[in-house]
Amino acid sequence: MTRLVLVLLVAASCATAPPAVDSERTSPHSDAAAGGLSAEAGAGPRGAGSGAQVVAALYRGPCLGRCPEYQVVVFSHGGVQYRGERNVAVVGEAWGSLTQEQLTALDNLFAEFHFQDFASRYEHLDTTDLPLVILSWRNKLVRHAHGDSGAPRELTDLEDAVDRLLNTAQWVKGPEK
Questions:
Q1: What does the pLDDT read at residue 93?
Q2: Nearest to 76 by CA among 32, 30, 137, 5
Q3: Are 54 and 78 in contact (CB under 8 A)?
Q4: What is the pLDDT of residues 104-160, one digit of tens each?
Q5: Distance set, CA 76 to CA 20, 57, 108 (Å)
Q6: pLDDT digits (tens, 9 = 90+) for 98-120
Q7: Is the pLDDT at 19 greater than 50, yes or no?
Q8: Nearest CA to 135 among 105, 108, 167, 157?
Q9: How far apart are CA 12 and CA 10, in angstroms?
Q10: How many CA atoms lie within 13 A of 116 on its CB side?
Q11: The 79-86 sheet, strands edge to edge
């Protein structure tokens, strides 16, 4: 987990329709699986050699229960890279894509919630068995321990809104029945 978070941190520094799912997946023995998510768009089906930049990333860490652990990275060309670790429907890597309109909606979402005004850390643990969420957009990264009662509610709302816009439920929960 530490390795995945570190890769996400490095990558982060550099209503619309849900993203389309690309059924092509990489091997569990690929570089991405061995070292976490790649910061270069060339790591996936849509990014071969494109040099796209990371626009946003969301990591949801484990808890003492059955919290889903996964991360999702959005690239400037619209590629969406998902990596599920545990307590998710899709373990491993999957790819989706966003339209230009969805990328704009994502930017608008972060602006609407005043993401740049959040502190970089909300990690005072009033409760210790809740997950850590790391959210990044452009050049800003926020670490949010869900056990921190002092964290603004709007941050949790933004995290959830990003999940909805990226339709992570397709990988986290699986197909609706």
A1: 98
A2: 137
A3: no
A4: 999 999 999 999 999 999 999 888 889 999 999 999 999 999 999 999 999 999 999
A5: 16, 12, 15
A6: 999 999 999 999 999 999 999 99
A7: no
A8: 157
A9: 5
A10: 6
A11: 20-22, 92-97, 79-86, 69-75, 54-60, 132-137, 140-145, 121-122
Helix, strand or coil for residue 99?
coil
Q: What is the pLDDT of residues 55-101, one digit of tens each?
A: 999 999 999 999 999 999 999 999 999 999 999 999 999 999 999 99
Distances (CA, A) of 70 to 8, 85, 111, 118, 129: 11, 5, 24, 23, 17
Residues in the chain: 177
CA 127 to chain centre: 23
107 is written with which tokens? 């930017």
Q: Which of 77, 94, 106, 116 is nearest to 22 (CA)?
A: 94
Q: Which two tokens stand for residue 34?
A: 């061995």
Closest CA to 134 of 78, 30, 41, 58: 58
